[in-house]
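Hello forum,

I keep getting stuck at the same step: I have a sequence, I want structure tokens, and every attempt I make locally crashes halfway through. Rather than fight my setup again tonight, could one of you with a working pipeline run this one for me? It's a single chain of 299 residues.
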Amino acid sequence: MRWQRFAVTAPPDASEAVSALLQELFGGLSTRSTPAGMVHEAYISEKKNVTEAHAALLAGLGRIPAELALSVSITVQVDWVDDEDWAETWKQHYQPIRVTNRLVIVPSWRDWPDPQCPTDARSDDIIIRMDPGMAFGTGAHATTRMCMIALDDHLRPRAEMIDFGCGSGVLSITACKLGARRVLCLDNDPICVEVTAENSRSNGVSERCEVRLGDTLEGMGGLFDCIVANVTPQVVSEQAPNAAASLKAGGSYILSGFTHRSEMQIAAALEAANLGAVAKYHEGEWCCWVAAKLPGSAT
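Reply #2:
Ran it on my machine without issues. Output:
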């Protein structure tokens, strides 16, 4: 099967707006920094209406405010990629990534310790082996790394967690390997559900991961110790009340996928849901917050 690739190059100030648009239209993306600007890539199957998707992308980019990026500053490249070419491209550029003193993401086809990788192996390393497929979850993006750091810092032993927008399952697997008892993995993209299920099996944690389609935190049917949402500013804001309703006392809502530009919006959404930030992480323009219920909130 072939996939149409949309590569959007934009100035850093427009990175969040472009990321949110691609997330909305395609359900996933990858982002990398280049001398020409931030390059955001998203893919759509040839089985879908690629012409309509292209038109929607151009229309959305045209609505980005001029103060973020003039239209001439944003370029779009479109081409076709085969499944095999996609896999080989990742294998060429995806290397082991040390996230914390003990968390390391290792591609499924690489050895660890890896003689080609400058990252030093440690005896207490926790290895997350990933094959992102078409799910765009390699750990290379700052928001993913910060969510992993937040999990390392805040996840309770034997926690029950929701990974909302699970992508490739990297955060779900991280939680399991940090000691989570159960993780509910939700994504609105069937490809992500399939990839997360496969990656959880290859990491030996599938018995603790329930993977299913879902696009809301409403009506989870129970309370959880932690909810991770590495999605878009709009979604993490909209889902804040549902997250609060699904958290146990002392639980954590780990949210990312937004930049400094959206911090006031995120803070207001949390306050309206009776949540408050207890920890904040930053890498470049990107943010990750850990929120908890404010005193006096209902359990």
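The chain has a mean pLDDT of 86. If your local run keeps crashing, start a new thread with the error log.
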